[in-house]
Write a structure and sequence with these properties.
Domain PglD N-terminal: 5-80
CATH superfamily of the largest domain: Hexapeptide repeat proteins
Structural class: alpha/beta
Radius of gyration: 17 Å
Number of domains: 2
CATH topology of the largest domain: UDP N-Acetylglucosamine Acyltransferase, domain 1
CATH architecture of the largest domain: 3 Solenoid
Strand order of the largest sheet: 7-10-13-16-19-22-24-25
Distance between the termini: 55 Å
Number of helices: 3
Mean pLDDT: 97
Protein name: Acetyltransferase
Bound molecules: coenzyme A
Pfam families: PglD_N (PF17836)
InterPro entries: AcTrfase_PglD-like, Hexapep_transf_CS, PglD_N, Trans_hexapeptide_repeat
Number of strands: 25
Helix content: 10-25%
Strand content: 25-35%
Family: Belongs to the transferase hexapeptide repeat family.
């Protein structure tokens, strides 16, 4: 079996993830994109349809990483890859700090400068983006994206598929539901339900503005 990684995605987020994979010692064989993708992504050749995945599996590739920022799309393509038999690998920057007592699922990206503190739980397919900090005992559900420079204080929980916009801050103990969105630069001081967008300081539901 081949040990090289297949990267699913070929956009800006994939560029960063490819370099994370290379920095941790993996070789990336190719990207799997769509008909609009560029021919290469940071020098890696791009196959322009996810229909190529089954052929790649038949060629002996077994390790994949889904490098797509959009949570629902990342979740869907990961399900497709694992159904074909691929194992999802993690991409963790050597310049990130991950506590030895933190738990990371599969298919997780942790960018440079990120900090994941004691006994935090990061489920499958999460992105902890550049410089984001996830403090002790936080729980991130499946396919959550914490954008660059966010700060989650201790004991915060974020439900599956939710997105926390760049530079947001969340005070301790806050619960955020599933498939919700926190706008860039928000400060979350009260719980947020599922499938809602909140913005501002303090963060309030967008449709209440
Ligand atoms: C919250 C967000 C998703 C809303 O996007 P949208 O649904 O297209 O909303 P709009 O741009 O139409 O804005 C709607 C209103 O909310 C306000 N608003 C939008 N985002 C806001 C924010 N982050 N903080 C405060 N107000 C905000 C707008 O000013 C607008 O107000 P108005 O109706 O008085 O003019 C988006 O603005 C945002 O913050 N995205 C985060 C992006 C990000 O962090 N990406 C990181 C990638 S790694």
């Amino acid at each position: 079996m081949k040990t090289e990684v297949i990267v699913i995605g070929a956009g800006g987020h994939a560029k960063v993830c490819i370099e994370l994979l290379q920095a941790q010692g993996d070789t990336v064989a190719c990207c799997v994109g769509n008909p609009d993708s560029p021919d290469t992504c940071v020098g890696i050749p791009v196959l322009k349809s996810d229909d190529h995945l089954s052929a790649l599996f038949n060629e002996g590739y077994r390790r994949a990483f889904v490098a797509i920022g959009a949570n629902a799309v990342r979740n869907k393509l990961a399900a497709k890859a694992t159904a074909l038999g691929f194992t999802l690998v993690n991409a963790v920057s050597p310049a990130a700090t991950v506590s030895p007592s933190a738990r990371l699922g599969a298919g997780v990206a942790v960018m440079a400068g990120a900090v994941i503190n004691a006994e935090a739980t990061i489920a499958d397919l999460c992105i902890v983006n550049t410089g984001a900090t996830i403090d002790h005992d936080c729980i991130l559900g499946q396919a959550v994206h914490i954008a660059p420079q966010c700060a989650l204080a201790g004991n915060v929980q974020v439900g599956d598929l939710s997105f926390i916009g760049v530079g947001s801050k969340i005070i301790p103990q806050i619960r955020i539901g599933e498939s919700s969105m926190v706008g860039a630069g928000s400060v979350v001081i009260s719980n947020v339900g599922s499938a809602v967008t909140v913005v501002g300081v303090p963060a309030k539901a967008l449709n209440k503005f």
